Amino acid sequence: MMSSEVFNEAAFFNHLGGDRELGAEILDVYLIDAPDRLRSLSEAVEKNDQNLVIKYSHALKGISATIRAEKIARISEIIELAARQGDFEKVRACFPDIVNELEKTLKVLKEYLGVHKN
């Protein structure tokens, strides 16, 4: 069983009524979507674009919460709230955490899907 901090498998599949096929499809989409959103967030942080940092951190929080990647959802929320307050020092300080956490999560999900796909 993997760390529920990275990907809470039980909570995710419980939410889907145990539908493994649907779960695998959602995780496949996340593997494509999350890195795209992180790239967009990174560009917004570089440009100090408050509205886009809020938009992309909120989006990353949402899709991460959906798959129960709870740590990414939490860091995304911290970044979103800091951006809303105009605290770009905090946004930049938290950004490496989200990069590292997403890297770990994507690795775990790829391994998980590799094991659980036919």
Automatic annotation (TrEMBL):
Modified residues (Phosphohistidine): H58
InterPro entries: HPT_dom_sf, Sig_transdc_His_kin_Hpt_dom
GO molecular function, one term: protein kinase activity
Residue stretches making up the HPt domain: 19-116
Sorted UniProt keywords: Phosphoprotein
Coiled coil regions, renumbered to chain: none
Keyword Phosphoprotein recorded: yes
GO biological process annotation, one example: phosphorelay signal transduction system
Protein name: HPt (Histidine-containing phosphotransfer) domain-containing protein
Protein species of origin: Maridesulfovibrio ferrireducens
